Amino acid sequence: MSVAQAFDDWMLTNQGAMEIALAQFLPSAAVVPARLHEAMRYTALEGGKRVRPALVFAAGELFDADPDLLTRAASAVEMIHVYSLVHDDMPCMDDDALRRGKPTVHVKYDEATALLVGDALQAQAFSVLSESTADPVRVLAMVRMLAQAAGSLGMCGGQAIDLASVGTALTVTELEQMHRLKTGALLRASVFLGALCGKALNANEEAALDAYARAVGLAFQVVDDILDATADSATLGKTAGKDAADNKPTYVSLLGLDTSRILAKKLLNDALTAIAPFGDKANRLAELAHLIVHRTA
Amino acid sequence: MSVAQAFDDWMLTNQGAMEIALAQFLPSAAVVPARLHEAMRYTALEGGKRVRPALVFAAGELFDADPDLLTRAASAVEMIHVYSLVHDDMPCMDDDALRRGKPTVHVKYDEATALLVGDALQAQAFSVLSESTADPVRVLAMVRMLAQAAGSLGMCGGQAIDLASVGTALTVTELEQMHRLKTGALLRASVFLGALCGKALNANEEAALDAYARAVGLAFQVVDDILDATADSATLGKTAGKDAADNKPTYVSLLGLDTSRILAKKLLNDALTAIAPFGDKANRLAELAHLIVHRTA
């Protein structure tokens, strides 16, 4: 079996594990309030590349993580990510009708349901994590990390900056700062949550993972901007070309396509360099960095 | 000093402590993203009776709780409560322009900011709690309790049932079930979080607090419905008469005013009976039950 095939299999295995875990950690659609639970499952199940869970699993492999805690961490991160998509798609934010190739929650159900689905998914993320029976010191540190990454100094803060930036002229540094919060914080948390499932990190390990996570987080966004400008909606599973239509500053609008592609490659190289000291045990993290930069959707 | 005066002073002291704690636990309005942080502080500070924090403090007194953990628990519960109000007031939910006598967040700022304020406040609640340096086993149990009370089997679930109930004919049992989730779950969590700041509960203590919390939680809602039907907007600090205008089932619409008042008194009696075994140490909880039933706003 080739290296690429082994990695593809690993991704599929993890996606399958996530599907089972999320289906189990979300209340059944038969439980009252049935419509809310149905909508939570509609948006969280059967969708997405599960990039954040993959980062959790890859970082966990590096440090021989506890499998149950790892699955909880991956599910919690994905629930936070999915809730942010549901709220982000609402009419008062990006007003998007299509996500992962399906109608968005407020289109399929209604706006109030979309609001509550997001709110309930955030709470559920903290439930799933805090219900772990692993070492409470470790689990509590993970709750702290997830809450900080999700809040106003992390993901929500980045979205607020994003909203305020529409139609304004950001510098590349300002754009980078926005994305470090908006998508970077949760991607970074994914890496650290996975690692914390295995052990407390020493300073060198923390610095290496931080450098990797920062590079990968930024690369993710640069590639997102490139894809939004170059791919079609069917391939993306969401509306393409929205950034330009919404007059949003992006790497492509600031740097142009060619320079954005060069930047993505440089960031990939930074990520790989950062984890080189871990040797072969970090192969999954390296392959994920490649996937994030070379993806086509 | 009379008993009533001592209780009033206790409430004022706690409200002052909450103001200081929330001001400290919320990022400064000078921190980027400044507008989001300003809006979070706008809605969370200088407002409300702080009933939930008072329940946390009262239950904490009963079990000689750790003061720092108690303040964190009270702040976390209040942040969850405030976020739920911000989202509840949005146009796609109750569409209310006035809250605690001030313009609601989506009116003062905009809808997208209101959405993010609520999302970030929820995350911040879990940050504040999980950053405690108290016994991790205890703190983690509290995170679990708060997350469950806030989620789809608690507060968010109750709001979903509430939305679905507009214009329908609920029975009193169904109405009670809705409120047990919508407001009851977080009020109950307030009592238990306060108690857990002091000690792990034995089965008798847990049953007593549960009976108290359930009675108080339901009484709170019955009185809310009475006030919505009888008080004016200036007194309430929010739009009065909305339930009838929105065609929402309430205790008043199902039972009438007189029977609703009798029910509130019965629930007060239930609450007091439940905590009688604790003796004088539960006086604050008893006084809070009185306050909740006899409030005029």
In short:
Chain A is mainly α. Chain A contains 15 helices and 2 strands.
Outline the structure in words.
The structure is a homodimer of 297-residue chains. Chain A is an all-alpha fold and 297 residues long. Chain A has a single domain (10-294), classed as Farnesyl Diphosphate Synthase (Orthogonal Bundle), CATH 1.10.600. Helices cover 72% and strands 1% of the residues of chain A. Chain A contains 15 helices and two strands. Chain A has a two-stranded antiparallel ribbon with strand order 1-2. In chain A, a hairpin with a 2-residue loop joins β1 (98-99) and β2 (102-103). The longest helix of chain A has 28 residues, at 203-230. In chain A, 52% of the residues are buried. The mean pLDDT of chain A is 93. The interface between A and B is large, with 53 and 52 residues.
Give the helix level of chain A as a range of percent.
Answer: over 70%
* Order of adjacent strands in the largest pleated sheet of chain A: 1-2
CATH topology of chain A: Farnesyl Diphosphate Synthase
Mean pLDDT of chain A: 93
Radius of gyration of chain A: 18 Å
Largest sheet: number of strands, sense, barrel closure of chain A? 2 strands, antiparallel
Shape, principal axes of CA atoms of chain A: globular
Q: Judging by the overall fold, what is the CATH architecture of chain A?
A: Orthogonal Bundle
* Helix and strand pattern of chain A: HHHHEEHHHHHHHHHHH
Give the assembly state of these chains.
Answer: homodimer
Distance between the termini of chain A: 25 Å
Number of strands of chain A: 2
> How much strand content do the residues of chain A show?
under 5%
Unreliable sequence segments of chain A = none
